[in-house]
Design a protein that fits this description.
The chain starts with a strand and ends with a helix. The chain is an alpha+beta fold. It is elongated, with a radius of gyration of 30 Å. The longest helix has 21 residues, at 559-579. Helix 12 packs antiparallel against helix 14. The protein contains 14 helices and 32 strands. The chain is 26% helix and 34% strand. Strands 11-10-16-7-8-15-12-13 form an eight-stranded antiparallel sheet.
């Protein structure tokens, strides 16, 4: 009976209690015994448990009886961090409703706003939930009014609960049954099921998470992936309750797992439609946009591990996280490695930590960069992820950088400092909005390159930890950008080149040269270090030559003998400078990669 099915997801800002609320709901309906219970039960990755964050969305089916009727509740616990907004948007497509969880002491934060608008775009029915009402600092009435003023939901419609103690969870389960809509799908139509996630299992191959919108799926059916145009036999169907439980079929409105002897994740497109081979549907379901990789960096093996170990580890990790991409890369200083693209800085950090932990690798990571767009003189537009890919300046008509719209929620007393910070990062003020008597929302437009380094740390210190931010890509804009080449002894070193705004090129170039100077040993000849834009040198440092005192054995006597010896030394230095090569140690590259103070 589809009228007794409720599909919903739990959305909120980081640390507002989504995963703990999921635990309480599982416990309350008896899906899990007290003995099996542990905190953040659905976060099964070690990293998720340690950092206390959700990285992968988890889908679970539970049964709950309300007013004498049994309801099937399919819910998805989603991540809260801005880098994993892609996971959230995928989860929303598989649902008809959402629980918008707001911390009753912290109030509405940047990601709360972003996730709520995302749910509204998907036409979902939203139930606002005030969590942590048992805290001494909780202000449920005040926060309910905040929800009303920002999102327009009636303050009285908010459900107050505590995910930690279980207070209010019964009222929440009743509201889910009564206030969220049932899926309006039909079982008699041709089968259409949406793939909203997939994971790789060493024994069973690819496990596909599906939401059936129309028709039904049975074990033994021949199914067709409409986008990938491949056919597979259904070898098994299951539901997570939260342990895996085998089922014979999945009907319209249900969510579950599908096994079909799929060997690699490349064969599965997330957002693809599964239909029957014999009676296929005419049109596929609307899928997802490809995730936008915002940040790029290189990984190189060091120490004991080699390139093959790194390749195997990255390929294995890519099986469970299709949202990061990688391509082989070579660097004259660091050898062979991979250029990887990520959804954001936290995503990059998580991938690096998983590679080091789960696969026991030692890695060198280069400084993160963003994607630039190049419009050439012949009108062709290309994207570059690495300064070394930039074509000759004479062929470049304009260089465009990614611009993001940044939304900051901040206490009133920090507004002046934050505006100064945004202005110093080439920000453009858009608007300001009152959230409550003590907090405001400020909107800015900023280049992505200016926020990927240390912007978030600075924001947290200026607002004493109370500020939160969320950003989304607006597009690309032409700016006065330049590629700065670093020359060591007159030869350009590709691995050190970078792209930045012309106004900051000289300062950044000089900072980099000072760092480099400390790490390159003195040679028998003087080594010039230069930062150049095209043919123009914008900064220079020199490493003095080591000198031998050739006149030490001349005491007294004719000065012309000393001069002759010094001239001979000078000639030797000149010849050495012409034929000698500079040895740049790996520590010099490492020093340059450290973020600036």
């Amino acid at each position: 009976m589809t009228r007794n099915i409720r599909n919903f997801c739990i959305i909120a800002h980081i640390d507002h209690g989504k995963s703990t609320l999921a635990d309480r709901m599982l416990e309350r309906v008896g899906a899990i015994s007290e003995r099996e219970m542990k905190a953040q039960l659905l976060d099964d990755m070690d990293l998720e448990r340690e950092r206390g964050i959700t990285i992968k969305a988890s889908a679970v089916t539970i049964h709950h009886t309300h007013d004498g009727e049994e309801y099937m509740l399919n819910f998805i616990d989603t991540p809260g961090h801005v880098d994993f907004a892609y996971e959230v948007s995928r989860a929303l497509t598989a649902c008809e409703g959402a629980l918008l969880v707001v911390d009753a002491s912290q109030g509405i934060e940047a990601q709360t706003v972003a996730n709520c608008y995302l749910a509204v775009e998907h036409d979902l029915e939203i139930i606002p939930v005030l969590n942590k009402v048992d805290l001494p600092s909780a202000r449920p009435e005040e926060i309910a009014m905040e929800v009303e003023s920002v999102f327009g939901y009636d303050a009285e419609s908010c459900i107050a609960c505590s995910a930690k103690s279980g207070q209010g969870v019964d009222e929440l389960l009743a509201a889910i049954c009564t206030r969220l809509p049932a899926p309006g799908q039909e079982v008699d139509k041709p089968t259409r099921a949406l793939i909203f996630d997939s994971i790789y299992d060493d024994y069973r191959g690819v496990v596909v998470f599906v939401r059936v919108f129309e028709g039904r799926l049975k074990v033994g059916d021949q199914v067709r992936m409409m986008q990938a145009e491949r056919t597979y036999p259904v070898t098994g169907l299951a539901k997570l309750m939260p342990k895996e439980q085998k089922v014979d079929q999945l009907e319209a409105g249900e969510v579950g797992l599908l096994y079909a002897s799929i060997k690699t994740l490349d064969e599965v497109n997330i957002g693809d439609t599964v239909t029957q081979e014999k009676h296929p549907a005419d049109t596929p379901l609307e899928g997802y946009r490809e995730p936008q990789r915002m940040v790029f960096c290189d990984f190189y093996p060091t120490g004991e591990c080699d390139y093959d170990d790194l390749r195997k580890a990255i390929e294995k990790l890519h099986l469970n996280d299709v949202s990061f991409e990688f391509a082989p890369e070579h660097n004259e200083a660091l050898g062979f490695g991979f250029r990887c693209g990520f959804l954001g800085l936290l995503h990059m950090e998580i991938i690096q930590e998983r590679l080091e932990r789960e696969h026991g690798l030692e890695l060198v990571q280069t400084a993160p960069t963003v994607t630039y767009e190049v419009m050439q003189t012949d009108g062709k537009v290309t994207q570059i992820h690495n300064p070394a890919e930039l074509p000759d300046p004479s062929l470049v008509k304009e260089l465009r950088e990614p611009i993001v719209r940044l939304e900051i929620i901040t206490p009133n007393e920090s507004i002046g400092d934050l505006m100064k910070l945004c202005d110093s990062r080439r920000g453009k003020y858009l608007k300001q909005q009152f959230l409550s008597d003590t907090r405001q929302i400020i909107d800015y437009e900023l280049p992505l390159a200016e926020i990927i380094y240390d912007f978030y740390d600075k924001l947290k210190s200026l607002t004493r930890g109370y500020g939160t931010m969320d950003y989304e890509l607006q597009g690309y804009r032409a700016e006065r950008l330049a590629k700065v080449d670093v020359l060591v002894n007159g030869k350009p070193v590709d691995a050190l080149s970078f792209i930045c705004h012309r106004e900051t090129a000289e300062k950044r170039g000089r900072t980099l040269l000072v760092k480099l100077k400390k790490h390159i040993d003195r040679h028998q000849f003087e080594i010039p270090l230069q930062a150049a834009i095209g043919g123009k040198i914008v900064a220079r440092e020199s490493i003095k030559a080591m000198r031998k005192n050739v006149t030490a054995k001349c005491y007294g006597g004719d000065v012309s003998r000393k001069r002759k010896l010094l001239e001979k030394q000078k000639e030797g230095k000149k010849r050495m400078k012409r034929v000698g090569s500079v040895d740049i140690p790996q520590s010099a590259f490492m020093a340059v990669l450290e973020p600036e103070e």
